[in-house]
Structures
1.
Amino acid sequence: MATAATGSSTLATAVPGRGGLARRSLLAGTAGTLLLGACGRDEEPASGPGSRPATTRGPQELVVGASLELSGRWAALGVLQERALRITAATLNAEDGVPVGNLRRTIRLVVQDNAGDPGLAARQATDLAWAHGVHALVGGTVAETAMAIVGVAQKLQVPYLSLAAADGIVLPLAQRTYVYKLTPDAGDVARRLARLARAEKLRRVAVLAAHGLHGDSGVRAMAGALEIAGVDLARTVRLPGAADGDPTWAAERAVEGTPDGIVVWGTAPDSGAAARALRRTGYTGQLLFDAGAVAEETLSESYLSAMEGALVVHPASLGGSTLTNTTTAALARRDFVFRYIREYGGFSGFAPYGSDALHLLANAARMAASVDRGRLRAYLQNQVTEGIAGAYAFAPIRHGGMAADSLGVFTVANGAWVRVS
């Protein structure tokens, strides 16, 4: 298979030396055989809730709709994903598009700004599905907007790849058959954080979790993971919602009794604000973060001194590919990072999710030889592949596809994320 630099429109498949990925591929392929056999081969959606013909879709296009947080509180996350989507679409289109059956389809993005408003995100998803006739949806970098899109995607039967972190996005699976999540599962991140706390000899740990669905996932996952790791949970404190703002009270509550470490489970910019509030109480213990902390804003001047020395669990793409430089996935990642830095002057580890989403959809269309929404869904849920952010292992029984072995541990040193393990 060629790389992105040499003409491929797909992500890399399993590579030598990654036995776990190969085994996941075999299981996923076996589990999906009956489902794929039941799918039709129509090039456009058949009759059903999502079948209304569009007036703005070209006959040789793969149309992807994106509802992103391009303004407002979460713009630091949404803008990264828009950049990644546009870079990847331009790259694939420069290679003559995506081979789908006997056609080569150009990728066309329809991007809308939901400003972090779940109601607006739901309306945009509906508009993208009906008026624009998109073949798939991407977006929602925070759990609340993602969940709003979930309802529309499921009702209209449009494949949806979420860029947000919250286990409820893809659970219960019976009610999320058209929904996929690219970010790591809370349980995988929590287990890595708990093992890290034990390795750092932290005996008592407090959890300071964001308000909302993402924080809910973290609270549940950390309680179980810390117990298994033999680390005492000192207390759990919730950060205020976006409307309440100031995290000072929550920080003061979290440091009561001086725990050895504090896990901050949230999303930028809340993560950096929580770190600053904790340090302002005089707390000097170890700070640990889930993957949601990773954004340029977290290491901005406002939060940098508070973040120095903090530990974070994040997909290994944050600090460089885990693969050798000669593998297809490593070369594709290097090409993406080069293009991203050339256009925007810097690179964020959160950015690859958007790129991977587009590659996964292109891969599904190529394998299905169709852009039928039902067939795209079926081929998405049987993809086991190495992407830019990490490895994905979708299966009919698992729509949260980021593999646990894609995670690494990083620290903040001299104002940068540096890989520890």
Note: Residues 173 and 212 are 20 Å apart (CA to CA).
2.
Amino acid sequence: MALFPFILVKSAGLKNDAIIINHEKIHLRQQLELLILPFYILYLLNYFANLFKYRNHHLAYRNIIFEKEAYNHEHNLHYLKKGSWYGWLKKI
């Protein structure tokens, strides 16, 4: 979980998982793009709108625009260097 400026992991072993860390770093950049607090507001609003739409927690979560960007690019360890800022807007 990314809570600016920290990345929180369930276990110490996950600190070395490059994919998970990259996913969370993408969230940190999203938080910076929106000046932190608006990110959390939009994240929750998008989640609840998706929950209403899909009536399923997992589908609601996976369809949050910020999660779509992070999941789509988590395996690309160069995404944050080469990817465009505000990439999540393409997921709307």
Note: The chain has a mean pLDDT of 95.
3.
Amino acid sequence: MAAFDTTRPHAAVGSAGRIGSMFVTGVSLFAGWNDARQTRKALAALTDRELDDIGLTRSDIDDISLR
């Protein structure tokens, strides 16, 4: 079971806070990129008929994956 200490302030101070913030930002960017990649992969695996059934075309895949 995980335990979280909620008594400490959320904003860290000094260079450790900046490094932590950069790490969180990097992880967040990677997670967003990976989500878009998985969405593109799943949509690309569909047939043209299946895409048409959900109102998409192949040219829509990149736009949809970035939302």
Note: The chain has a mean pLDDT of 85.
